[in-house]
Design a protein that fits this description.
Layout lengths: L1 H14 L4 H14 L1 H10 L3 H4 L2
Helix pairs in contact: 2-3
Length: 53
């Protein structure tokens, strides 16, 4: 679980450096190219849409 939390924190930190449009682009790309990883992210961080600001 700790590794997952670190991963979520890393994703949040990375997204915070991008513009809103870039953040959405990254998430759409992740969903399309890494659907399993995207599903895991959504499962552990259901509030991910709030990060998109």
């Amino acid at each position: 679980m700790e590794r997952v939390e670190v991963g979520v924190d890393a994703v949040k930190e990375f997204l915070s450096t991008l513009t809103s449009d870039e953040r959405w682009g990254v998430m759409v790309e992740m969903e399309q190219t890494q659907p399993v990883m995207f599903g895991q992210l959504v499962a552990v961080a259901p509030d991910w849409v709030e990060w998109m600001g």
